[in-house]
Amino acid sequence: MTTRGKKYRLVAEKVDRNKQYPLDEAVALLKEVSYSKFDGTVDLAINLGVDPRHADQNVRGTTPLPHGLGKTVRIVVFAKGDAAIQASAAGIEHVGGDDLASKISGGWLEFDQVIATPDMMGVVGKLGRVLGPRGLMPNPKLGTVTFEVTKAINELKAGRTEFRVDKAGIAHCPVGKAAFPVDKLAANIRAVLEAVLRAKPSTAKGMYLKKISVSSTMSPGIKIDPAPFRG
């Protein structure tokens, strides 16, 4: 059993573990109990009424955040011809094909997102063992396999988040930084919840949005009342 530090125990006393807080109240409390010396990332956890063992209930998606993630996103683009020119014009430093793949397979991993045009997926596919475990493999469902390179780059730079349900039926995703004002964090959380609701599988039975909680780096989790978001 992990022993929590004194600071954690002190802030945890401010959180009622049996209470489901209204969203704005939960976010305000989170800011109060976020005690890390750096600007921690705020994470949302959503417990869904799905069975991820069934492919048609494997909830996954992305959504733009109205106030971004509060960080600079490093992007690489696999493209050639006009698409490569678009990527460079959009400010992407690392654009290429086999040369870029060789650099990555050689151990260079200084990037957060990968975009690829469909005709470059043969090259990118060879990097599956490197990109896959890190969640960096481009995917058409996530808008990162596309000929609309400029649009994809702009969306990633503006700040969007990806959610994907795990084996336990819980979707986790970052929604901003602890230093964000309450209204901006709350707006980002609402955007994610709306996207998750839109992604509800038609085969999901019973209650879909079961539990919601929010936490930041080194803070206790705070439960959010899911009732207002169930529609």
Number of helices: 8
End-to-end Cα distance, whole Å, is 39 Å
Spatial arrangement of strands, main beta sheet: 2-6-7-1-8-9
Q: Average pLDDT across residues? A: 91
Number of strands: 9
- Shape, please? globular
Share of helical residues:
25-40%
Portion of residues in beta strands equals 15-25%
Q: Which H/E pattern describes the elements?
A: HHEEEHEHEHHHEEHEE
State Rg: 19 Å
Instruction: Summarize the biggest pleated sheet.
Output: 6 strands, antiparallel
Give a brief rundown of this model.
With 231 residues, the chain is of the alpha+beta class. Helices cover 31% and strands 21% of the residues. The protein has helices at residues 6-12, 23-33, 81-89, 98-105, 121-125, 128-131, 149-158, 182-198; strands at 41-48, 60-64, 75-78, 94-96, 113-116, 160-165, 170-177, 209-216, 222-224.
What can you see in these coordinates?
The protein is built from eight helices and nine strands. Helix content is 31%, strand content 21%. It has helices at residues 6-12, 23-33, 81-89, 98-105, 121-125, 128-131, 149-158, 182-198; strands spanning 41-48, 60-64, 75-78, 94-96, 113-116, 160-165, 170-177, 209-216, 222-224. With 231 residues, the chain is of the alpha+beta class. Helix 2 (23-33) crosses helix 8 (182-198). Strand 6 (160-165) and strand 7 (170-177) form a beta hairpin. The longest helix has 17 residues, at 182-198. The protein is globular. The strands form two sheets. Strands 2-6-7-1-8-9 form a six-stranded antiparallel beta sheet.
